Amino acid sequence: MWLQVYPQSEIPMYKQIIDGVKAAIAKRYLRPGDKLPTVRDLATQLTMNHNTVAKAYQELEREGVIELVRGRGTFVAKNVSVPHQLERMEALRDAMRKIIVEAHHLNLSETDLLDMFQAVLSDWTGEQAEVYADADEPGGR
Amino acid sequence: MWLQVYPQSEIPMYKQIIDGVKAAIAKRYLRPGDKLPTVRDLATQLTMNHNTVAKAYQELEREGVIELVRGRGTFVAKNVSVPHQLERMEALRDAMRKIIVEAHHLNLSETDLLDMFQAVLSDWTGEQAEVYADADEPGGR
Amino acid sequence: MWLQVYPQSEIPMYKQIIDGVKAAIAKRYLRPGDKLPTVRDLATQLTMNHNTVAKAYQELEREGVIELVRGRGTFVAKNVSVPHQLERMEALRDAMRKIIVEAHHLNLSETDLLDMFQAVLSDWTGEQAEVYADADEPGGR
Amino acid sequence: MWLQVYPQSEIPMYKQIIDGVKAAIAKRYLRPGDKLPTVRDLATQLTMNHNTVAKAYQELEREGVIELVRGRGTFVAKNVSVPHQLERMEALRDAMRKIIVEAHHLNLSETDLLDMFQAVLSDWTGEQAEVYADADEPGGR
DNA sequence: GTGGTCTAGACCACC
DNA sequence: GTGGTCTAGACCACC
């Protein structure tokens, strides 16, 4: 399953779904135009209520990540116009500042932190490459 | 005031205090051994309930960032050991992964992202240097 | 094609058809007595289920906009009487009130709003005039 | 009660709440900084489930109309920065076009339509003036 | 006391 | 079959 949700986490389940779908798209496991599971199927797979999945899907649609088509299903959005681009860039910087502060408290030097970030990034890119290869190879996925 | 709290933010106020204190320490505005305002003073300054400040201080102590000394007050810890080092490193990596996913959805390339991170980091280091200078100059702060 | 339908819109497709047919009549692209495409033809052109088109046609007939003649086809009504005149006038006023409230939230003054309404109205009348001219010219569709 | 909701309407109740709150603000019955009823109080008053009110309030907050302050309550927003200004202006024009088409089908002339719009607008402004007077007079409201 | 999340289950509009 | 809305009621975090 490409989506893991932990009910006992302090992050609400519907937010975990949002993050998980975004991550799956970023890793190209889901691609523009792909069909997502129906609200009720995903709810069954994750053993949760369908309202929780619906809430996540509605938020994802509001953010322009997916499209809900009445009576047909849910699809990864094709148009990549990004709403609230500027706010989101600023939020990204904010998240980076929090990381920097935490790194300081863990006694990491600037170099340590940059190395760590690059390591996480190339791990991530590596995983993404695998998925990409899987999906492209003959008979893949 | 070195600490700003926004009641209408979606981030709980006690967490804003925690983040703010950590940032102040990381920027060396507060240094090991410095005395923090009392719970009630800080609550008055921030116009909030003292229970909220108390909760933040308790959490900061639990993380080893500050020390509550009965009858004397609250002080920035002289950091000997960092508790939960491994969990916190993993949480740091997790936060980085979230940033990477969000950067992808904003159509940033890997290079863009690395540049951005370095820019935020050197801005931050710049600010820190200023504070450091301020604090060192005679009659500083 | 004089009728555009967006499946991913939040407005149901059958309502988009209703609105589109009404707009085409108001703009005199379709005139009293004109034949409309059959349910199945229109469904094919718009790549949708014929039940959806049928539902739109039934509603349009109920409103007295078109006439279904068994075995002959569907025609734009030669409007003799408008059913539900009073309810529809009241619904019109309601729609106007919603516009007024939204205009307020967009910080538009009364004058701005009236100007905007007049501008939209004369744009619309302008388009209508063009269609009218097209339809009248020799060989004109 | 300044807010009426009709359960049997085809408009979902949570949307009726959204429209009602916006109308109350536009009519200055509710003013920036005013406290709204709590989620649960309003639900009781309207004899509906608190989740329905919560959904409406969350949407209103997302639109920047109100502010939800944790543990304290819900308030009419003070900052009037309007998000999605351009889209909302375009949606307004769209709503106007629908009105124009419907007016045509009701055999209203352009002049009739403009008169009607102005009449609705001045009625509305009249009501607003009354509320305004009520709220300002000594011991008012 | 305040809003937020979630479930189990119902009913509905649309395709 | 698809998503959307709503209820009754539980539990939770925050202030």
Order of SSEs of chain A: HEHHEEHH
* Rg of chain A, Cα atoms, Å: 17 Å
Gap between N and C termini of chain A, in Å?
13 Å
Largest interface pair: A-B, 37 and 37 residues
- If you average the pLDDT of chain A, what whole number results? 90
Low-confidence stretches of chain A: 137-141
Strand order of the largest sheet of chain A: 1-3-2
- Tell me what portion of residues of chain A adopts beta-strand conformation: 5-15%
Largest sheet of chain A: 3 strands, antiparallel
The count of DSSP E runs of length 2 or more, i.e. the number of strands of chain A, is 3
Describe the global form of chain A. Answer: globular
Assign the structural class of chain A, choosing from mainly alpha, mainly beta, alpha/beta, alpha+beta, or little secondary structure.
mainly alpha
Assembly context of the chains: homotetramer
Share of helix among residues of chain A? 55-70%
How many helices of chain A does DSSP assign?
A: 5
Task: Tell me about this structure.
The structure is a homotetramer of 141-residue chains. The first copy, chain A, is mostly helical. Chain A has helices at residues 13-26, 39-45, 50-62, 85-105, 110-136, and strands at 35-36, 66-69, 73-76. Chain A contains 5 helices and 3 strands. The first copy, chain A, has a 3-stranded antiparallel sheet with strand order 1-3-2, with helices on one face. In chain A, helix 1 (13-26) packs across helix 3 (50-62). Chain A is globular. The two termini of chain A are 13 Å apart. The relative contact order of chain A is 0.11. The A-B interface holds A 19, 22-23, 25-26, 65, 80, 82, 85, 88-89, 91-93, 95-107, 110, 113-114, 116-118, 120-121, 124-125 and B 19, 22-23, 25-26, 65, 79, 82, 85, 88-89, 91-93, 95-107, 110, 113-114, 116-118, 120-121, 124-125. Chain A binds a DNA duplex (15 and 15 nucleotides) through residues 7, 10, 12-14, 38-40, 48-52, 54-55, 57-58, 68-74.
